[in-house]
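Hi R.,

As promised on Friday, here is the backbone we talked about, encoded as structure tokens. Could you run it through your design pipeline when you get a chance and send me back a sequence?
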């Protein structure tokens, strides 16, 4: 049986921490679908088309991955893509409560799927998209955290 995992998020923008999770997940699952939420409670710097384009660029060298966008419930997107796993990354204990709540809610909304967590590699444990945006806005180096194409776009968009 082929197992498809959906990895949802805002990805504003995708970071090396996300790429690391996707790359490791492809060793476990037959297909990893990176699903970019069009509308979230977050005010995004990049629109969903841009966020998807960055994800495609950053993940181009990893096999068994596809990038899609979705609007509305993740449960519906997961069903639409035939995913039976919802993949999330855990960086620190502080992520846990929110993730636990989301996993429990998604279990109600899509009981046929299981949420699976991968812990982030140590060197990416402190990254978040908003920190990366803030560093770029203040002219700091983000080379270590994002793909070069994303770095360039970030400076053009957020540099004050
Ligand atoms: N490496 C680096 N950063 C990581 C990371 C990793 N491995 N894992 C998470 N992060 C960061 C993200 O960059 C993000 O940072 P930010 O807050 O600075 O933007 C933060 O951790 C968590 O955000 P993200 O992983 O993008 O998830 P999210 O919380 O923004 O996404 C959705 C939430 C989109 C998955 C959720 O809102 C959703 O499912 N929405 C659809 C509607 C729905 O179904 N709602 C009901 C859900 S039960």
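Update: got your reply. Pasting your designed sequence below so it's all in one thread:
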């Amino acid at each position: 049986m082929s197992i498809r995992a959906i990895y949802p998020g805002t990805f504003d923008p995708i970071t090396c921490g996300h790429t690391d999770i996707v790359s490791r997940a492809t060793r476990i699952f037959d297909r990893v679908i990176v699903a970019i939420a069009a509308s979230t409670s977050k005010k995004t710097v990049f629109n969903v088309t841009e966020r998807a384009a960055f994800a495609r660029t950053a993940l181009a060298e990893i096999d068994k991955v596809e990038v899609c966008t979705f609007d509305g419930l993740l449960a519906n997107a997961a069903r639409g893509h035939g995913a039976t796993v919802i993949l999330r990354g855990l960086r620190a204990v502080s992520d846990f409560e929110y993730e636990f709540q989301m996993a429990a809610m998604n279990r109600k909304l899509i009981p046929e799927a299981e949420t699976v967590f991968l812990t982030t590699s140590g060197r990416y444990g402190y990254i978040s998209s908003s920190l990366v945006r803030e560093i770029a806005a203040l002219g700091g180096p983000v080379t270590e955290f994002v793909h070069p194409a994303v770095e360039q776009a970030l400076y053009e968009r957020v540099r004050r």
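One thing I noticed while checking it: Helices lie at 16-25, 48-58, 74-80, 93-109, 129-137, 148-158.

Thanks again,
M.
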